[in-house]
Amino acid sequence: MSAMYVGAYWGARAEPASTCAARLARCLESLHGAHPALTSWCHKGRSHAGARRPVDVDPGSLTTLVERGRARRDVDDETIDELGFTGGMWNGQTPSVGLTFQCGATFMPIGNNVVLQLSGGGEGETLTEPAVARA
Fold first, then answer.
1. Which of 21, 24, 35, 42 has its CA 20 to 30 A from that of 86?
2. From first to last of its 135 residues, what are the pLDDT tens digits of the chain?
3. The CA-based dihedral angle spanning residues 101, 1, 130, 44, taken in that order and rounded to the nearest 10 degrees
4. E strand spans, 44-96
5. CA-to-CA distance for 117 and 79, rounded, in angstroms?
6. Is 95 exposed, middle or buried (0-12, 13-18, 19+ CB in 10 A)?
């Protein structure tokens, strides 16, 4: 089987970074028990070493991670509150899993979501089993 994704989507909802971080923490906690490949997470990076830095899943660290994903204007670096926060991480192992999120957006064409990109084939085959994907 090829790669697949699992996503959760919700409507426009203005939320502070701390609320988005708390939702992300609950999501990561739920994933932890679903499959061994979902127990730890790393920051995305521009280099191999940078992409191996672990994500701290405590509320303060996740709030900082979410805040770093605040949308800003190119011209003056002002925040674009209606676009909320975006970010991502990956599991840093094989099978590879990517996680992206959009939270706090009130501009409806954007919407809010969390998406897991699951590897297929080999060891990743177990990630795409229906029971694991539902979990």
1. 35
2. 567 888 999 999 999 999 999 999 999 999 998 889 999 999 988 877 778 899 999 989 999 999 999 999 999 999 999 999 999 999 998 888 999 999 999 988 878 999 999 876 666 778 878 888 777
3. -20
4. 85-90
5. 28
6. buried
**Burial readout 110-132 (b: 16 or more C-beta within 10 A, e: otherwise):** eebebebbbbeeeebeebbeeee
Specify the amino acid at residue 33. G
Distance, CA of 72 to CA of 24 (rounded, Å): 21
SS3 57: coil
